[in-house]
From TrEMBL:
The UniProt record lists the keyword Chloroplast: no
Domain Glycosyl hydrolase family 13 catalytic: 23-431
GO MF: alpha-amylase activity
InterPro entries in UniProt: GH, GH13_cat_dom, O16G_dom_2
Matching Pfam families: Alpha-amylase
Name of this chain's protein: Glycoside hydrolase family 13 protein
Protein family according to the UniProt entry: Belongs to the glycosyl hydrolase 13 family.
PANTHER family: ALPHA-AMYLASE FAMILY MEMBER, NEUTRAL AND BASIC AMINO ACID TRANSPORT PROTEIN RBAT
Length: 552
């Protein structure tokens, strides 16, 4: 077979179109200094793991100064490094080592809000109502006879009102935690400061950006503020029942002018810097963020939220490819991240199960079979890696890690737990630090205990336990990524007609085919040389349930 390996080097401005990007949640990846919290030096020391895995880039979740009111997404200084995680010199060393190993570096930026400890917000509190300092944020007087009521009925994604009153009577907007005041992107000073931030990290060698809450920057702040009323749910992942682009604060049409401005900065570098939007909006609207003159890519959350059902997956895959291609973008695929239940657990939750309720039960209602979850997760991974476009992996999924659903209430750190009055347990279960070795106080994460407790079962998932072990999940990922690089060609697929119920069968090229059995019964194995299978094919004639195979 001819060498079809795509050029993913720094010389190729389109390296991102079919790349595999590995998300690093720094506080849970590796702890080099022994304080229990992962840090940048820990990431640098473990970059060989990513190079051996075969990914093309790493995406660093926030490492900026933060009080961790929201896991680092409450940023005090967007151009600094939290002293618990290291220094700017440590960051520069990480980028240098990543590039030496052939890895690109993508960093998270958080433009919708800052920390309440950000110097701007502290200045706004001191300056008082009507001051220019408050114009950088969304401050408003309250309603009611004495301003005692919030300015509108807008709700926080984390629960409760999105407004918090300050001692002088004004209210400020926080679509997330109260420690995360929203910026006013109608203010030119805000826009100019983020241009500086984009240049700051680009100048330090960053190859791209993941844009947090990309659909939330533009807001309708004309007076009087519009109440949500009965137009729909207000969570960031909701699809409000309003004319697209006209919701008071989600996915407004005006947001795209901001990203067209950013694109000018990205394109001033050689090669141009890349970007991907976290935009919880439906496909056709999501594609707008991925246009070539804006961010270029957007996360595909329909795929992440799809059930393990062949018909539903085929519909989502076809629609996702269509909307991405319509604007000249490549599709994106993701199964896990720092905000959702890990897919080794989520994909085997019975239909209709509320993941939040399952977490609240400590993973007991219902109890899940870890081996069944891992089998389905491996099949889903091979399916995802066969699809045209970019695949985003979340740290630990290459080890087959399940969700840690039974974290004791007293160790929870996610603000969702407190803000919902202990109704939603939050996202800590997917953020438990990684196991690197089969022994040690934190299984090699660091020299001491980790900031979240790891279950004893993590020993069998450790890198040390899986590296070089035939059939392990880690070796499955390594083999799949090595093959994928050789097999990639084009950005389309062709569905095979007349497939059995429950089966996803498509060709990427005449030389490469992916077949997934998402049904309950074995099906005949199509002809062809087996390149890789997510589980052993016992008889070589049938494809078992919850199995994906790549055929030449």
């Amino acid at each position: 077979m001819a060498d079809l390996t795509p050029d993913l080097s720094s010389r190729n401005p389109d390296w991102w179109r079919q790349a595999v990007i590995y998300q690093v949640y720094p506080r849970s990846f590796a702890d080099a200094d022994g304080d229990g919290l992962g840090d940048l030096r820990g990431v640098t020391e473990r970059l060989n793991h990513l190079a051996a895995l075969g990914v093309d880039a790493l995406w660093l979740s926030p490492f900026y100064p933060s009080e961790l009111a929201d896991g680092g997404y409450d940023v005090i200084d967007p151009r600094g490094v939290d002293e618990r995680l290291g220094t700017l010199d440590d960051f520069d060393a990480l980028v240098t080592e990543a590039h030496r190993l052939g890895l690109k570096v993508v960093v998270d930026i958080v433009p919708n809000h800052t920390s309440h400890l950000h110097p701007w917000f502290q200045e706004a509190l001191r300056a008082g109502p009507g001051s220019p300092a408050r114009d950088r944020y969304v401050f408003r007087p309250g309603r009611g006879a004495h301003g005692e009521l919030p300015p509108s009925d807008w709700q926080s994604v984390f629960g409760g009102s999105a407004w918090r009153r300050v001692p002088d009577g004004d209210w400020y907007l926080h679509l997330f935690a109260p420690e995360q005041p929203d910026l006013d992107w109608g203010n030119e000073e805000v826009r100019a400061d983020f241009r500086t931030t984009l240049r700051f990290w680009s100048d330090r060698g960053v190859d791209g950006f993941r844009v947090d809450v990309a659909h939330g920057l533009a807001k309708d702040l004309t007076e009087p503020l519009r109440d949500i009323g009965d137009i729909g749910a207000t969570g960031e992942d909701a699809l409000p029942k309003v004319v697209p682009g006209s919701h008071p604060y989600w996915d407004r049409d005006e947001v795209h002018e901001i990203y067209r401005d950013w694109r000018k900065i990205f394109d001033a570098y050689s090669p141009p810097r890349t970007a991907v939007a976290e935009a919880w909006v439906p496909g056709a609207r999501r594609a707008l963020y991925a246009r070539p003159d804006e961010l270029g890519q957007a996360f595909n959350f329909e795929y992440l939220e799809a059930h393990w059902d062949a018909a539903e997956l085929r519909e989502v895959i076809t629609g996702s490819l269509g909307t991405a291609h319509a604007v000249g973008a490549s599709a994106t695929w993701v199964l896990s991240n720092h905000d959702v239940v890990r897919h080794a657990s989520r994909l085997v939750l019975p239909p209709g199960t509320d993941p939040a309720a399952w977490l609240l039960s400590g993973g007991t209602a219902p109890a899940l079979d870890p081996s069944a979850g891992l089998r389905r997760a491996r099949a889903a991974t091979l399916l995802m890696l066969a699809l045209p476009g970019s695949a985003y992996l979340y740290q630990g999924e290459e080890l087959g890690l399940p969700e840690v659903a039974d974290l004791p209430f007293e160790v929870l750190q996610d603000p969702i737990w407190e803000q919902t009055g202990h109704v939603r347990k939050g996202r800590d279960g997917c953020r438990v630090p990684l196991p690197w070795t089969v022994t040690g106080p934190s299984y090699g994460f660091g020299p001491g205990a980790a900031w979240l407790p790891q279950p004893a079962s993590f020993a069998r998932y450790a890198v040390e336990a899986q590296a070089g072990t035939e059939g392990s999940t880690l070796e499955l990922y390594r083999t799949a990524l090595r093959l994928r690089r050789k097999l990639l060609e084009g950005e389309t697929l062709t569905w095979t007609p007349d497939t059995p119920a429950g089966v996803l069968d498509f060709r990427r090229t005449e030389a490469w085919r992916s077949v997934t059995n998402a049904g309950d019964a074995p099906v005949p194995l199509p002809p062809g040389e087996v390149l890789l299978a997510s589980t052993p094919l016992a008889d070589g004639k049938t494809l078992p349930p919850d199995t994906t195979v790549w055929l030449a």
